[in-house]
Amino acid sequence: MKLKPLKMTVAALAVAAAVGGAYSLGQNVPFGNANAATQPTAAVTAPAAAPINTPNGLPDMRSIVASNAPAVVNISVTGTRKTAANGPDLQQMDPNDPFFQFFRHFRGQIPESRQPVQGLGSGFIVTPDGTVLTNAHVVDGAEEVTVKLNDKREFKAKVLGLDKASDVAVLKLDAKNLPTVKIGTSLQTQVGEWVLAIGSPFGFESSASAGIVSAKSRNLPDGSYVPFIQTDVAVNPGNSGGPLFNMNGEVIGINSQIYSRSGGYQGLSFAIPIEVAMNVEKQIVAHGKVQRGKLGVSIQEVNQSLADTFGLAKPAGALVASVEKGGPAAKGGLEPGDVILGIDGKTIESSGELPAAVAIKQPGETAHLQVWRKGETRNIDVKVGSFGEEKVASSETPSADKGRLGVAVRPLTPEEQRQAEVKGGLLVEQASGAAGRAGIRPGDIIVAVNGQPIGDIDQLRGIIAKSGKKAAILIERGNSRIFVPVDLG
After folding, report:
1. What is the predicted pLDDT for the residue at 290?
2. What pTM did the predictor assign?
3. Which domains occur in the chain, in start order?
4. Is 160:282 a contact under the CB 8 Å cutoff?
């Protein structure tokens, strides 16, 4: 699902998804729409303290809110967008509207104008001299950024830099002796821990909400390298860029996205780990830009079927689906079908942990990888390159059933081989039986089976005949390559 910015008025969300998706939490509304917001009450600054337990066993978070609310800010941005001067905004029209196609067809003949727009988000102060962290999507394209403190003071902010890959932006206020939050770590955070968010949902400033950590190292469909912290904390449009606190009153993440069918909170919230954000902040302040390492591979999660196919003791690590030609991984000797089990002595339990571990390395540094290949572990050193966004392939867990492969295929033409950048390969024209149940579909290109490149139909039949009950089929679909575990029965 793609990230979508949310538009909001007091009455209703102007954009709602018909199906579930991941949404950024900034809010953008045209000038003239009213935005209700509570009048903030100045918080009393108090030393950070762990919450006490109330008689019913729940934590009392009053001290956390009192200590940190003064350092949590409301961010408003202004900018413009192009619209047709004599026609409606197509972004606000129903595609099924009979006039939609008419206006789209004649859009080029209608003069364009620039309409003012306004956005709202949250942020938090990390240095007394005015360094503020927020989400990149909150301030992206902004012409003016205003930061409002809990005590009602307002400052014009300068955008020092933003990093779309991590969705982190760094702002600077011309001020001194500002209240700050305490930066913690998400590394020791455990699923089930209580966490608390402070922000400005729908413009209601200094709003606090609480919940628990639902999961860690979540990969989202936007392809980001960020290993998100999933929570059930109620966050909504306007919370974007606000802090997520642990029960020691320390920031462990930045609230960034929600997964929703309606565009509003439905129990799934995602935060950027604070380590990722502070690494971005450090580089932007020092160099004005962000550099991070990359391996040059497409990876996917190892499920039980793939673990069985590759002979792993348990589902763990990051499966290499493809290797970028001439990239760092290729030069280091990584191959499709390798399972990366560790990096620099750290175990990789989930594929989502690998991109973040590589990204914190500087281009030119060496990554020491522990790799599973053909039933044994080996060590491979890769000199990392400069980040250009790792692609994360994904496939749903296939259902297991009996049967042989069940595909009708044909060899690729020379032109198709050139476009797919493969030698050999077979185009799937029909898929049923075991292949169909596993998710293989017409249009997929079978590149390899059990690590062996496929050149012709007879070779495919021979490998499948010797595969036993399971086979790992490497397919190319669109711009991604993924391994599909097939239960042959």
Report:
1. 86
2. 0.63
3. 1-288 (2.40.10.120), 293-392 (2.30.42.10), 407-487 (2.30.42.10)
4. no
